[in-house]
Design a protein that fits this description.
By secondary structure, the protein is α/β, with parallel strands linked by helices. The chain contains 14 helices and five strands. A five-stranded parallel beta sheet has the order 1-5-2-3-4. The structure holds S-adenosylmethionine (SAM).
């Protein structure tokens, strides 16, 4: 049975740590008390707004100090990948440490890039996450359970040799990626079975992480990491800033370096078990037997 539910407004989470006393918990214990979660319950869950009140000083100290230690490997993987409205990992670690014990199950039905399940796994808790958006799911499923470095590097070499049957050809794609990079990305999109294969999923996640960045640091022409802009806007922006030529990088060499860096400290040593589901939580939760053992529900929604 759930003992506590914390609903956190992602807008508040965007605030810096020193303003976290604005973060409010809506202690809605009992919402998901029954194993059978109705659609109505979830609607309430979605539209509920956090209560706006200052938390007491003791809570503030708890929230801003004493971030639980995690391994160097976990720190290295926590950054996978750029996402909108990310919950700070330190915050998730604090909440999970405070409200649960080793082995307890932590649920995030709107888990995005997997901050909550990952923090739970890093602290030896079991995790249960759901995400409807494939990019978020690829990140969260990968960071909680990445394939081995050897497998990922081998798959990268294979993909690099494949020719895609469809090569994007529009002004946006010509300005966004150098020809070699575009071929590599189209092949990755076509051949990586990210939904069913752990190695393919891990490689896809690592490609997505470095898809956009400042010129030369990512695979594309300069573009923000966390916010998708409309292709027309991007083209206009590149023209206005005299950046119409994409960076001439070797995508495979860049990926090799990124993979090496990501695995440099190893991977999360998983004592715990868990699963991240791809799909709509309103459909998955009512059928999930795992819900019965959830000790903490920690999530964030952009309201
Ligand atoms: C504010 S984001 C969560 C961010 C997350 N805490 C993190 O740190 O990455 C909310 C997420 O809920 C997902 N979402 C929205 N409706 C959903 C649904 N019905 N089922 C599952 N996920 C959903 C969105 O795709 C989005 O990734």
């Amino acid at each position: 049975m759930l003992t506590r539910i914390s609903l956190i407004d992602a807008n508040h989470l965007a605030l810096k740590l020193d303003r976290m006393n604005r973060l409010i918990f809506d202690d809605a214990t009992g919402w998901l008390r029954n194993k059978n979660i109705s659609r109505r319950t979830l609607t309430t869950f979605r539209t509920a707004r956090p209560v706006s009140k200052k938390i007491v000083e003791a809570d503030r100290v708890r929230l801003t100090k004493g971030i639980p230690a995690i391994s160097l490997a976990a720190k290295q993987w926590a950054g996978v990948g750029p996402y909108y409205a990310m919950m700070p990992t330190s915050f998730a670690l604090q909440q999970i440490k405070h409200f649960t014990d080793q082995g307890d199950v932590v649920l995030d039905p709107f888990c995005g890039r997997g901050t909550v399940p990952f923090a739970a796994a890093a602290l030896g808790r079991s995790f249960f996450g759901i995400e409807i958006f494939p990019v978020g799911w690829v990140y969260s499923a990968t960071k909680c359970n990445p394939a081995s470095q050897v497998r990922v590097e081998r798959r990268l070499e294979e993909i690099a040799k494949l020719k895609p049957s469809l090569l994007e050809d529009s002004e946006f794609f010509r300005m966004a990626y150098a020809p070699k990079t575009l071929q590599f990305l189209c092949a990755a999109r076509q051949y990586l079975d990210w939904q069913n294969n752990q190695t393919d999923r891990t490689l896809m996640a690592l490609i997505l992480v470095c898809l956009h960045d400042k010129t030369g640091a990512g695979l594309s022409n300069q573009m923000r990491q966390t916010k998708a802009v409309h292709p027309t806007y991007a083209v206009r922006w590149w023209k206005r800033h005299r950046k119409s030529t994409p960076p001439d990088i070797d995508p495979v060499e860049m990926m090799k370096l990124k993979i090496k860096w990501r695995y440099a400290k190893g991977v999360l040593d998983l004592d715990s078990t868990g699963k991240i589901y791809l799909g709509d939580c309103t459909r998955i939760l009512p059928r999930a037997s795992r819900i019965a053992n959830v000790k903490l529900l920690l999530t964030s929604l952009k309201t």
